[in-house]
Design brief:
Elements: H1 29-44, E1 63-64, H2 65-74, H3 85-99, E2 105-106, H4 121-136, H5 141-154, H6 164-193
Antiparallel strand pairs: 1-2
Helix pairs in contact: 1-6, 2-3, 2-4, 4-5, 4-6, 5-6
């Protein structure tokens, strides 16, 4: 039986499950198989040809999601615009959890601008990289749950969607996600016995 959360494009038809189970004994066995098969298929897929798209005109007070995520990744998010990297990350995670969408542009309070387009898959890949890093050093289980949902979304698209750096990063995300499930599974078992 295929893993149910990647049988359709979750960017077009989001899945709104509340909490992603990450105890490896409770998680669906198809999960790991699907992830490993997807990572392998990234090797074989033909990468997309970059489309020339004119840059969107800048709106006063608008912040590009890619710039926000890059600032969080590098640890140099402009704190004049946002409280902290972790505050901005928490706000974006909450938005993703509620709407299963992120958008290309936000205002200074991380509210979606009225004409904002849905973010590109490469933005979600960067968010997943950030979550992998934060999950490795965190006791916050909700970040692991969000990472699993986000990776479900990313692996619901054809492997050929991803090119270059995103392709390599997505393989690493899948590898890191597997390790995190293993680690958190041990924590869940340990907590259950104490």
């Amino acid at each position: 039986m295929p893993y149910p959360y990647t049988r359709r494009n979750l960017f077009l038809e989001p899945e709104f499950y509340e909490y992603s189970q990450f105890d490896k004994d409770l998680i669906q066995p198809e999960w790991s198989e699907q992830r490993l098969a997807f990572a392998a298929s990234l090797e074989a897929a033909n990468p997309p040809q970059p489309a020339e798209k004119p840059p969107s005109p800048k709106t006063e007070g608008a912040f590009e999601l890619r710039d926000i995520l890059s600032g969080i990744w590098r640890g140099d998010l402009d704190e004049d615009d946002f409280q902290t990297e972790m505050g901005a990350l928490a706000a974006l995670v909450a938005k993703f959890e509620i709407f299963r969408r992120l958008f290309k542009t936000y205002d200074g309070k991380l509210r979606k601008l009225p004409d904002a387009e849905v973010a590109a898959p490469s933005d979600y890949v960067l968010l997943a990289r950030i979550l992998c890093r934060e999950c490795a050093d965190s006791e916050l289980s909700y970040l692991v749950s969000t990472l699993l949902k986000l990776t479900d979304m990313l692996t619901s698209l054809p492997p050929g969607t991803y090119a270059g750096e995103d392709r390599a990063n997505l393989r690493n995300i899948i590898r890191d996600e597997q390790k995190l499930v293993e680690t958190w599974s041990g924590r869940v078992k340990q907590d259950a016995t104490t």
